[in-house]
Inverse folding.
């Protein structure tokens, strides 16, 4: 993205859920605020706004990041995936389906961030153990305590993909 010091604006392109989006933003805008306020993708939740809770987790070039700590200007030419990009053709992503079946959410506020971390985990490690799942998901806090359901959902998807461990 190009940044102008006289106007404090940044411009560029970012691919969000497969669509190229052209941006012209204040250079201080975070990725989280770009998604929610400028692109209308409100699935990504604004939790602590300090990178501590994981509610705003999205995938940047396939890796999970807390979007409140990333500037939109850092995303020029990169790929961002949000929870809105998981379901396809009116069908839930297998992890979304598993979260429902295993009670992997209660209030649902942390669920988008949990799902984005879980998709990254399963792509990186298709057959994680329960301990590996808990470690990978440790940056995503759930105030309701749905952790057992979240771990069960992730293990279920790994097993359904033929990666039982």
């Amino acid at each position: 993205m190009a940044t102008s010091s006289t106007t404090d604006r940044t411009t560029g392109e970012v691919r969000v859920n497969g669509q190229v989006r052209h941006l012209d933003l204040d250079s201080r805008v975070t990725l989280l605020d770009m998604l929610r306020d400028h692109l209308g993708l409100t699935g990504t939740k604004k939790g602590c706004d300090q990178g501590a809770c994981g509610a705003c987790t999205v995938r940047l070039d396939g890796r999970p990041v807390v979007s409140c700590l990333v500037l939109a200007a850092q995303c020029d030419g990169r790929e961002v995936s949000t929870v809105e990009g998981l379901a396809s053709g009116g069908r839930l992503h297998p992890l979304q389906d598993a979260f429902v079946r295993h009670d992997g959410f209660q209030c649902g506020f942390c669920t988008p961030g949990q799902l984005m971390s879980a998709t990254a985990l399963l792509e990186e490690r298709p057959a994680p153990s329960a301990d590996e799942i808990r470690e990978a998901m440790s940056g995503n806090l759930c105030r309701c305590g749905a952790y057992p359901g979240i771990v069960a959902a992730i293990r279920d998807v790994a097993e359904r993909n033929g990666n039982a461990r």
Notes: The chain has a mean pLDDT of 94. The helical segments are 31-38, 94-101, 111-124, 130-136, 147-160. Residues 111-124 form the longest helix (14 residues). The chain is about 30% helix and 20% strand.
